[in-house]
Design goal:
binds NADPH dihydro-nicotinamide-adenine-dinucleotide phosphate, Quinone Oxidoreductase, Chain A, domain 1, alpha/beta, six-stranded parallel sheet, 2 domains, single chain
């Protein structure tokens, strides 16, 4: 059973060498007499997610959010898996599931009630790491529930070509909003405009003056800013918000590897402009998962929503794929393929 372990706690930007691959053995059946229901799964796809950076640190800033990975132990995260043994009545051998699993070929899951059973297998299974999994729910909840959009509003999204951003943009377009995204390369900007149907997009790395770029794209100001990056971008956006704008605070990836977060100088704009900024965590919105599937599955099948994934082949290439999130190496949702079936 090949596994990816954390070698040591991480400070600064994570590197591939912070992880190592280990071979271990595992019984391919559930141990007898443990008393608690469990499932044994074969992992197919693993999800690379920015929040995993928090788990690489020794001390967590917020208790009760997630636990740190332990040096010398396999790391874990969201994944798509197939059940190969089960003592949990709601899941049987052959079922596909998504949820928390180990970065390894096979995992024994001792909290099977937390897994989502996959009922729709006529879409790519890897979508349950992204479009139909945690990042998809994040986009859905953050846009419809937190941003409370109105038709015709002007929406800006940062890290817009990523797992969450590409969906927020497509939801906002289908809803009838004007949509602009920022991303870190020309290819990503092309994707935003030509594949995901954004009205405008710009490469923030080539815009020394973010305020000018935002004024060019939003001559009438921004009503909703879907915040994925924080730092300088948030500061520039605050100056360009409209009165009574909303900022769902989804993530701040530009800050995750810094010892000290950068200051946001324009915070007072939230007062003058009566802007509602709201942090949210996807975990609080999983009760909407059925509603989400009922909305999004038909949109996928009708071709109204598309999704771009970036595959790393093999568990051994997982660490590089994971740390690549923090340099923007991924184009679309970063997935690690452990096994094709
Ligand atoms: P992505 O697929 O968007 O991958 C991360 C991307 O972030 C990179 O490709 C890169 O794109 C961009 N990025 C990396 N470093 C920086 C930087 N210093 N400044 C600006 N952009 C940077 O990831 P996700 O879609 O999975 O996540 C997007 C955000 O949503 C993250 O902040 C994440 O933490 C948050 N999140 C929050 C959740 C919640 O419950 N609140 C749940 C899920 C995600 P580029 O080349 O464009 O720079």
């Amino acid at each position: 059973n090949n596994q990816v372990l954390l070698r040591h706690f991480v400070t600064g930007f994570p590197k591939d060498s912070d992880f190592e691959l280990r071979e271990s053995t595992i019984e391919l059946s559930i141990p007898q007499g443990s008393g608690v229901p469990a499932v044994l799964v074969k992992n197919l796809y693993l999800s690379c997610d920015p929040y995993m950076r928090t788990r690489m640190a020794k001390s967590l800033q917020v208790k009760g959010y997630v636990d740190s990975f332990q040096p010398g132990s396999p790391i874990s995260g969201y994944g798509v898996s197939r059940v190969i043994d089960s003592s949990f009545p709601k899941l049987k051998v052959g079922d596909y599931v998504w949820g928390f699993t180990g970065w390894e070929e096979y995992s024994l899951i001792t909290e099977p009630e937390k897994l989502f059973k996959i009922d729709h297998t006529d879409v790519p299974l890897s979508y349950y790491t992204g479009l139909l999994g945690m990042p998809g729910m994040t986009a859905f909840a953050g846009f419809y529930e937190v941003a409370t959009p109105k038709k015709g509003e002007k929406v800006f999204i940062s890290a817009a070509s990523g797992a969450v951003g590409q969906l927020v943009g497509q939801f906002a377009k289908l809803f009838g909003c004007y949509v602009v995204g920022s991303a870190g390369s020309k290819d990503k900007v092309d994707l935003l405009k030509n594949k995901f149907g954004f009205d405008e997009a710009f490469n923030y790395k080539e815009e020394p003056d973010l305020d000018a770029a935002l004024k060019r794209c939003f001559p009438e100001g921004i009503d909703i800013y879907f915040e994925n990056v924080g730092g300088k971008m948030l500061d520039a956006v605050l100056l360009n918000m409209n009165v009574h704008g909303r900022i769902p605070i989804c993530g701040m990836i530009s800050q995750y590897n810094l010892d000290k977060p950068e200051g946001v100088h324009n915070m007072a704009m939230t007062i003058f402009k009566r802007v509602k900024m709201e942090g949210f965590l996807v975990f609080d919105y999983y009760h909407l998962y059925q509603k989400f599937l009922e909305t999004v599955l038909p949109q996928i099948k009708e071709g109204k929503i598309v999704y771009v994934e970036d595959f790393a082949e093999g568990l051994e290439n997982g660490p590089a794929a994971l740390v690549g999130l923090f340099s923007g190496r991924n184009v679309g949702k970063q997935v690690v393929i452990v096994s094709h079936e």
